Amino acid sequence: MFRMSLMSLILVTVFFITGCSGQSASGNEKNYDETKKMVVDILQTDDGKKALKNMLSDESMKQQLVMDSDMMKKSVEKTLSSDKATDMWKKLFEDPAFVKTYANSMAKEHKKLMKDLMKDSEFQKQMLDVMKDPQMTSHMVSVLKSQEFNKHLEKTINNTMETPKLQKKMNKIILKAAEEQSSKKKKQSKGGGSGSG
């Protein structure tokens, strides 16, 4: 019963907001802000949260949300491509903590995307075109020569060398080389001995 009354109140406030469109801009904005605050206050109460949770778990509501997903997608795309959103994203990506969190959260998706792209012939062609660009080549050379890259490379090599799997392989190679060297010396000493006798 309470849920129905709460939902009715929310619906009434929504209709109230849309109904105020005929008023002056400043009056309309004031009413909108007051109504928005009231709706937010209602939704923040335990009963409001419960009603919203129940509403979202309703099958018919889920279907309605799925049906409206295209419209929602378009709205989100429009919002994200606005000048305000662009400025917001720029500021967010200037924050190292946000960049780190974003990178960590998207790592799996980026990895999958890159794997998919590497299989795509059109993407491969574009990558080759980019790599052939003299400006790009010059930039890559300067990056490869940089002290920061050298440090990163040294660290990567050290980390790789310290892995047990590689150490095991290296030990095998060294032992095999030592055995081959030893057998060569034995053959040479036998050959030298037989030649002198």
UniProtKB/TrEMBL annotation:
Entry-linked PROSITE patterns: PROKAR_LIPOPROTEIN
Superkingdom field: Bacteria
Span of the signal peptide: 1-25
Positions of the UniProt region annotated as Disordered: 177-197
Keywords tagged on the record: Lipoprotein, Signal
A Pfam family that the UniProt record links to this protein: GerD
InterPro entries: GerD_central
Domain Spore germination GerD central core: 65-178
Protein name (record): Spore germination lipoprotein GerD
Organism field: Lentibacillus kimchii
Gene name per UniProt: gerD
